[in-house]
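Schema walk-through. Below, the input block comes first and the output block second. Nothing else is stored per chain. Lengths vary across the set, and this one has 315 residues.
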Amino acid sequence: MAKHYDTAYKEVFSYPEFVQQLIEGFIPSEIANIMDFSTLTIHSGNYITPLFEEKLEDVVWSVDISWDGAKQPVYLYILLEFQSQPDPTMPIRLMHYVACFYDHLLKNKKTTLKKGLPPILPIVLYNGSKRWSAKHDISELIFPEPPDFLKAYQPHLRYYLVDEGSYTNEELGLKPTPLSGIFGVENAGHSMEALQQAVDKITAIIQASPHKERIDRVVTRWIKRHLSYLGAEIKLNRLNSLVEDKDMLAENLENLVKKERNTARMEGHMEGRTEARCEVARNLIKLTEMDDAMIAKIAGLPVKVVTELRSTSKH
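--- output ---
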């Protein structure tokens, strides 16, 4: 799962317009307001972190900010965290990653200690099903709280969290961008009906975009990876454009919705039949001296189920 999303999102965030949509739509406005998005420049996030013995390929951009009449670059360190649940060690990981990234800048002569280290905005993009619960600053992990004379010597590094699943469809609708559309598709989960509605929304957003062709290509590739991950039975090799192939995709998704509904009805019907059989077994247990094997045969249930029903009825 992580690898699938990692690859898909890395391509999305290799385009400046999606980085701008992330900042303008999901980061506090006071930060976005001082950024000159025309200066967005992508950088290599490929380096080794010795502590965790891993090779990172996170998404790193720089953008100029205007502050007190002066301009300076700030690095946007976007960590794609696509695990099933929050990582409580995230503050430690981020402190290590940022330290390694600074070391990477110095070793590659992107800056010098004399010039100074550039500011960094660490952003964690998370799409797990459980809401994020990890601490946002490494200082919050230090417990019990040290006395005042030690506080100044404790580490501090805070990251900004974008937890996709925490946004409702109504909130995402207030940010009509391709990125919010992608988040909407993610939040649809495995429901084909919700997915169909989310795809319709993102297609409409793309059609209204002044960069329709470019955005369409990027989002279509993302959608194809996502549908493949969901196991959707769609001939993805025929899907080249959400806009141009929308009728074909809509027809396929509609068929999947019908299949999903039929499956749900069948499951509901089977559950109803099973419950009816269990009720027969409960009555026979209560009113007769039949053994479990005989009751199971009459009710059409496994003997194990009848035994469990008998045990439950005693309480």
